[in-house]
C-alpha cells in the first residue's frame, strides 16, 4: 500500500513536471519578447527624437546631408556609365574618395580642403613623374635605390614641414595628400610602365570630385563660416547679458540659496556663459575657414575674421567675471537677506543697465551698424553712483560694529587656552633620569602624553574654528562686498568689450548708427587702393 502511494505520488510529480516545465519556458519566452518589444519601441522613439532634435537645432544640417548624397551620386556616375568608366577606369574611385573627405559643412572648410587636396595632388604628381623620368634611365637596382632614397628624403622633408606653424595651420591637409599621392605614384612606378596615364587619370578624377564639391558648397545653398562666426559672437553677447541678469535676480529674489547645488546643465546662468568659455577653439576654426571664403555679402567688402577672434577673447575675459559673480551664489557664507535687501534696488538697476548695453551691442553686430554714442548712458553711471552711495550709507556693515570689540577678547581667550595647555602638558627634558628604568618610564609617559595631546588638539581645532568664524561676524556684509565689487568689475570690463566691437564695426565698414533706420546699408566705400583685400587671401592659392 505504501509502495502504491509512493508510485502514485511519483507519477503525479512526473506529470506535473512534464506539463509545468514547458509552461514555464513559454512564460519566459513571452516575457523576453515583451521586454525586447519594449526596448525596440524605446530605441525607435529615442532615435526619432535625436533625429528631430538635430534637424530642429540647425535645419542647415538636413540641407548639407542632401548635398553630400547628391555629390556622391554624381561622382558615382563615373563608375555607372560605361563610356565614363572606360575613360577613367578604376581611378574613378578617387573622385568618390575626394567627395567623402573634402565636402564639409561650410564653404570655407570645403574650399580649404579642396584647394589643399588639389594643390597637393598636382605637386605630388609632378614630382613623382620627374623622379620616375630620371630613374628610368638607370638600371633596375640603381632605379630601386634611387626611388627608395627619394621616398625617404621627400617623406622626411614633408613631414618636418608639417611642424611649421603657418603650414600646420593652413596646409596640413595638403601636405598629407602630397605624401600619400607621391608615395603611391612613385612606388607603383617601379612595377608599372605607363606612369603618366596613372597621374593623368588620378588628377582628373580628383579634379572632378573637387569641382563638384566646390560647386555644391559655393552655389547650392551655401553655408558660410564667416556668418557662423558672426552669429556666434551675437549669441555670446546675448548669453552673457542673460547670465548677469539672472544671476543678480537670483541673488536677491530667491528665498534661499541651495547648498551643494549641482544642476549646472539646467542652470540658465551657467548656460549663458558656458558657450563663451568654450568658444576659443571654435572661433579660431571658424576664423580660419572664413579666411578662405570669397566675398559673399553686400554688408562689407571683406570679412574681418581676425577682429572677431579678438572680440571673442575679450568676451572670454568678461565671462570669467560673470563666473565669479555666479560663484557668489554658491558660497558657504552668505550675507543675511535683511542686509542684502538694503542694496537690492541699486544692484538690480546696475545689472539691468549692463544687460541693456550688452544686448544693444549684440543687436548692433547683428544689424552691422556702429554702436550708439550713448551706449554707456547716464543711467549706468547713475546706477553705479547709487550703489556707491548705498554702501557708504551703511558704514557699520562694512567697517564693523560693537561686535568687533569682542574679537580681541575671543582671540586672547584662544591664546590663553593654548598657553595653559602647553604649561600643563609640557615636558622638561632636564628632569629625565639617566638610568634605563627611568628612561623606559619616561618613554611610556611620553607616549601617553602624545596621545592626550593629539586628543586635545582635535578638540581644540573646532573651538578655534568657531572663534575664527565668530570673529568675522563683525562684518556680516563681507560676502555682499565681494558680490558688489564683481558687479563694478563687470562695468569696468564692459568698456573693453565696447572698444573691440567699435573696432570691428570700423574694419567691417558697418553703417552709422541711426535709431530710426532698420535697413542694412553700408555707408563706407570700397577703398580705391589695395583691391586684393576683397579677394581670397594669398595663402588660399
From TrEMBL:
GO biological process, one term: malate transport
Keyword Chaperone set for record: no
A GO term from the CC aspect: membrane
Protein name per UniProt: Aluminum-activated malate transporter 12
Topology term for the membrane: Multi-pass membrane protein
KW Transport (keyword) present: yes
Protein's cellular compartments: Membrane
Domain of life of the native organism: Eukaryota
Amino acid at each position: 500500500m505504501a509502495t502504491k502511494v509512493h508510485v502514485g505520488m511519483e507519477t503525479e510529480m512526473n506529470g506535473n513536471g512534464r506539463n509545468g516545465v514547458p509552461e514555464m519556458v513559454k512564460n519566459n519566452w513571452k516575457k523576453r519578447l515583451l521586454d525586447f518589444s519594449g526596448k525596440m519601441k524605446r530605441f525607435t522613439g529615442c532615435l526619432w527624437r535625436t533625429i528631430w532634435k538635430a534637424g530642429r537645432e540647425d535645419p542647415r544640417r538636413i540641407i548639407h546631408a542632401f548635398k553630400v548624397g547628391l555629390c556622391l551620386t554624381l561622382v558615382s556616375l563615373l563608375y555607372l556609365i560605361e563610356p565614363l568608366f572606360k575613360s577613367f577606369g578604376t581611378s574613378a574611385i578617387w573622385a568618390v574618395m575626394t567627395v567623402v573627405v573634402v565636402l564639409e559643412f561650410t564653404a570655407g572648410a570645403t574650399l580649404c580642403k579642396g584647394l589643399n587636396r588639389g594643390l597637393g595632388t598636382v605637386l605630388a604628381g609632378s614630382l613623382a613623374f620627374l623622379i620616375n623620368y630620371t630613374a628610368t634611365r638607370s638600371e633596375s637596382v640603381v632605379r630601386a635605390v634611387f626611388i627608395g632614397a627619394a621616398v625617404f628624403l621627400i617623406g622626411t622633408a614633408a613631414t618636418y614641414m608639417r611642424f611649421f606653424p603657418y603650414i600646420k595651420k593652413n596646409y596640413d591637409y595638403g601636405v598629407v595628400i602630397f605624401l600619400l599621392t607621391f608615395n603611391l605614384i612613385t612606388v607603383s612606378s617601379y612595377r608599372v610602365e605607363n606612369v603618366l596615364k596613372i597621374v593623368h587619370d588620378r588628377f582628373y578624377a580628383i579634379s572632378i570630385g573637387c569641382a563638384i564639391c566646390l560647386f555644391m558648397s559655393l552655389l547650392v545653398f551655401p553655408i558660410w563660416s564667416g556668418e557662423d562666426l558672426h552669429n556666434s559672437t551675437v549669441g555670446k553677447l546675448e548669453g552673457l547679458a542673460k547670465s548677469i541678469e539672472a544671476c543678480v535676480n537670483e541673488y536677491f529674489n530667491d528665498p534661499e540659496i541651495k547648498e551643494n547645488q549641482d544642476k549646472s546643465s539646467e542652470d540658465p546662468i551657467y548656460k549663458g556663459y558656458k558657450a563663451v568659455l568654450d568658444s576659443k577653439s571654435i572661433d579660431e576654426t571658424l576664423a580660419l575657414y572664413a579666411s578662405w571664403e570669397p566675398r559673399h555679402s553686400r554688408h562689407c567688402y571683406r570679412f574681418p575674421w581676425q577682429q572677431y577672434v579678438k572680440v571673442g577673447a575679450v568676451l572670454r575675459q568678461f565671462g570669467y567675471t560673470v563666473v565669479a559673480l555666479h560663484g557668489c551664489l554658491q558660497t558657504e557664507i552668505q550675507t543675511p537677506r535683511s542686509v542684502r535687501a538694503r542694496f537690492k534696488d541699486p544692484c538690480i538697476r546696475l545689472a539691468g543697465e549692463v544687460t541693456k548695453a550688452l544686448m544693444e551691442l549684440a543687436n548692433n553686430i547683428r544689424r552691422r551698424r556702429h554702436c550708439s554714442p550713448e551706449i554707456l548712458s547716464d543711467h549706468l553711471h547713475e546706477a553705479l553712483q547709487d550703489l556707491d552711495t548705498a554702501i557708504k550709507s551703511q558704514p557699520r556693515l562694512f567697517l564693523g560694529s560693537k561686535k568687533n570689540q569682542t574679537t580681541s577678547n575671543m582671540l586672547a581667550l584662544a591664546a590663553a587656552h593654548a598657553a595653559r595647555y602647553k604649561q600643563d602638558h609640557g615636558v622638561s627634558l632636564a628632569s629625565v633620569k639617566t638610568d634605563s628604568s627611568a628612561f623606559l618610564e619616561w618613554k611610556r609617559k611620553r607616549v601617553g602624553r602624545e596621545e592626550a595631546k593629539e586628543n586635545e588638539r582635535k578638540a581644540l581645532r573646532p573651538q578655534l574654528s568657531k572663534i575664527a568664524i565668530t570673529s568675522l561676524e563683525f562684518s556680516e556684509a563681507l560676502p555682499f562686498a565681494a558680490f558688489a565689487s564683481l558687479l563694478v568689475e563687470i562695468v569696468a570690463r564692459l568698456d573693453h568689450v565696447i572698444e573691440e566691437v567699435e573696432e570691428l564695426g570700423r574694419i567691417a565698414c558697418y553703417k552709422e548708427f541711426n535709431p530710426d533706420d532698420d535697413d542694412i546699408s553700408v555707408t563706407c566705400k570700397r577703398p580705391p587702393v589695395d583691391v586684393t583685400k576683397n579677394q581670397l587671401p594669398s595663402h588660399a592659392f
